[in-house]
């Protein structure tokens, strides 16, 4: 466990970085808010000072001439303080929300370029928690602390000044409680930050499990796992409850201590000050003004105590935020990367080996050529490495050994943007966004005319069914295209690839999950899409790749056979065995 002092010192660079990155650009607005806070604090000090003439002049001396001037002065003070409070509250709320918005945009802007391996190693719920739960905590900490620290600090300083002005000796007696409260606050803050970190992690786990449970509700019911899921999620909810309860208890400890200390201080003031008044050393008005200033000063002191607790919880979220923001992607464009410009692209694998972070090597010295404008197919049993090859071409992962070249360029020497712009991917799992059919087809295709959109949709055998939808191309497809059938989603993905018009086409089991009728329509669209493009197909259904120019047969991360369909059948090897199995299953 980290030493508390070391943890506190480690917080300083974190706070400095957050201030420099997100607070400093908004300094003009913050300055106006601070000025208004200073006015608010000054008016609070004036309220305490006005107690002296109210007691001495109006009540004790019974000077009627002073009644209205003093009363109007109090009204004026409260009016000024009210408007100043409104002003700095609105400004600081805007500043706090702007900071959160900038942090969320920066975080997503960073994650959108993160390695695919990172997303595969993370629960989506944890990432969503960083955007939602963590940012909510940071928002609370920022808005309350930015608005509260300035106002309460100014108020505390001014009121302490009023106390010292009235009686510096009495001030020394009264202010002994503040350092004690400060020490307690610091200790409680460190405990709260630790609890908050655990709470945020548990919240991320809960978000992830809830997402899985809601998405997999059909399977949960089919396998009778309702009670299991209920218990599993219930345990995390209970953990969060216990952590929240612990944070409440820790936060609340300071309140009774502060109240006891303040009570002792007030008693001391009454006794000591009372003797001073009776001895004629001071007036009742001065004493009452002093006690008023002390009581008013104690309120911002208590608020600063609560703000420290909130800030510690916010710091835990900021720490997690910067940890994520500092993560550098392993796959990125080199500083001197070359832009790929090609209409027809030859893809070459040169003794490529690849190993995922965990597990055995997936590819062992794989070499093959996909000639420009030709169609090659990768076939083989599950786990042979076919999909791994497709993931390596757009650099979702980087090869462990060897090289992949496009038109003679090692893809690691190309800019990622130009490399991926040269490709279109159609996979078994179609990514659909909760938007219209039109936006899903045009996704990643730049400026597109209505004629080009319709032409691509017709080529993908999608136009007719799209026009039958309630709003045609402007129909919303729901989350992940839930309102469409599997075949319809595939044809929209093909229309997207048509519209992209990239020289390299990657097809990953594009028809394996479809029924016979849907597969026939999708295959017709794919045949049109492949014309003139360098196409690399991964397929289990050998009927879809029998006309490929070259078929590479894979097994255990190696290419064991290559040739055309008829040639491979004649070899009576792995391919012939796969073909025979397929024919028996379809019989």
Sheet with the most strands: spatial strand order: 6-7-8-3-9-10
CATH architectural name of the domain at 16-325: Up-down Bundle
> What class would the helix/strand composition place it in?
alpha/beta
The total count of strands amounts to: 10
List keywords for this structure.
587 residues, ABC transporter transmembrane region fold, six-stranded mixed beta sheet, four-stranded antiparallel beta sheet, elongated
Structure report:
- The chain is an alpha/beta fold.
- It has a domain at 16-325: Up-down Bundle (ABC transporter transmembrane region fold).
- The protein is 64% helix and 10% strand.
- The strands form two sheets. A six-stranded mixed sheet has the order 6-7-8-3-9-10, with helices on both faces. A four-stranded antiparallel sheet has the order 2-1-4-5, covered by helices on one side.
- Helix 2 runs parallel beside helix 6.
In short:
By secondary structure, this protein is α/β, with parallel strands linked by helices.
Write the layout of secondary structure elements.
Layout: H1 4-23, H2 27-60, H3 67-111, H4 116-121, H5 124-131, H6 133-166, H7 168-174, H8 177-215, H9 217-222, H10 226-278, H11 284-325, E1 347-355, E2 361-370, E3 375-379, H12 386-392, E4 401-406, E5 409-410, H13 416-421, E6 423-427, H14 437-442, H15 450-459, H16 463-467, H17 486-500, E7 504-508, H18 516-530, E8 534-538, E9 550-555, E10 558-563, H19 565-571, H20 574-586
Parallel strand pairs: 3-8, 3-9, 6-7, 7-8
Antiparallel strand pairs: 1-2, 1-4, 4-5, 9-10
């Amino acid at each position: 466990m980290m030493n508390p002092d070391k943890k506190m010192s480690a917080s300083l660079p974190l706070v400095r970085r957050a201030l420099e990155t997100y607070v400093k650009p908004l300094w003009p607005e913050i300055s106006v808010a601070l000025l208004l806070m200073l006015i608010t604090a000054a008016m609070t000090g004036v309220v305490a000072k006005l107690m002296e003439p109210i007691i001495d002049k109006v009540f004790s001396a019974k000077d009627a001439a002073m009644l209205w001037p003093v009363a109007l002065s109090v009204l004026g003070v409260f009016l000024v303080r009210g408007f100043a409070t409104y002003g700095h509250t609105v400004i600081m709320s805007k500043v706090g929300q702007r900071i959160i918005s900038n942090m969320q945009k920066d975080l997503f802007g960073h994650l959108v370029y993160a390695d695919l391996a990172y997303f595969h190693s993370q629960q989506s719920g944890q990432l969503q928690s960083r955007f939602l739960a963590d940012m909510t905590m940071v928002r609370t900490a920022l808005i309350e602390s930015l608005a509260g620290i300035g106002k309460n600090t100014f108020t505390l300083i001014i009121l302490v000044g009023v106390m010292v002005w009235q009686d510096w000796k009495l001030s020394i007696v009264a202010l002994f409680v503040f350092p004690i409260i400060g020490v307690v606050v610091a200790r409680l803050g460190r405990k709260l930050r630790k609890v908050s970190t655990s709470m945020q992690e548990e919240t991320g786990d809960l978000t992830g499990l809830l997402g899985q449970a809601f998405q997999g509700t059909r399977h949960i019911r089919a396998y009778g796992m309702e009670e299991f899921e209920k218990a599993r999620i219930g345990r995390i909810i209970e953990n969060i409850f216990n952590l929240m309860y612990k944070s409440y208890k820790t936060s609340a400890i300071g309140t009774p201590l502060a109240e006891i200390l303040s009570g002792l201080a007030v008693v001391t003031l009454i006794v000591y000050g009372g003797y001073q008044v009776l001895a004629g050393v001071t007036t009742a008005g001065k004493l009452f003004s002093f006690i008023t200033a002390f009581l008013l000063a104690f309120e911002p002191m208590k608020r600063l105590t609560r703000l420290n607790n909130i800030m510690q919880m916010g710091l835990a979220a900021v720490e997690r935020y910067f940890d994520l923001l500092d993560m550098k992607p392993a796959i990125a464009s080199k500083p001197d990367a070359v832009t790929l410009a090609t209409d027809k692209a030859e893809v070459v694998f040169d003794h490529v080996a690849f190993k995922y972070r965990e597990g055995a090597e997936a590819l062992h010295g794989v070499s093959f050529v996909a000639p420009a404008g030709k169609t090659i197919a990768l076939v083989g049993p599950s786990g042979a490495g076919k999909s791994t090859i497709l993931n390596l071409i757009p650099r979702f992962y980087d090869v462990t050994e060897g090289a992949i070249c496009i038109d003679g360029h090692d893809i690691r020497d190309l800019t990622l943007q130009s490399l991926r712009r040269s490709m279109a991917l159609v996979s078994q799992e179609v990514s659909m966004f909760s938007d219209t059919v039109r936006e899903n087809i045009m996704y990643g295709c730049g400026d597109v005319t209505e004629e080009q959109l319709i032409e691509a949709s017709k080529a993908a055998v999608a136009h007719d069914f799209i026009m039958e939808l309630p709003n045609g191309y402007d129909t919303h497809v729901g989350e992940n295209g839930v309102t469409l059938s599997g075949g319809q989603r595939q044809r929209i993905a093909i229309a997207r690839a048509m519209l992209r018009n990239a020289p390299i086409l990657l097809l990953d089991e594009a028809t394996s999950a479809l029924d016979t009728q849907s597969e026939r329509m999708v295959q017709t669209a794919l045949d049109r899409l492949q014309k003139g493009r360098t196409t690399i197909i991964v397929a289990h259904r050998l009927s879809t790749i029998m006309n490929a120019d070259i078929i590479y047969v894979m097994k255990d991360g190696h290419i064991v056979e290559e040739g055309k369909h008829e040639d491979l059948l004649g070899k009576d090897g792995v391919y012939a065995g796969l073909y025979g199995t397929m024919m028996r299953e379809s019989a």
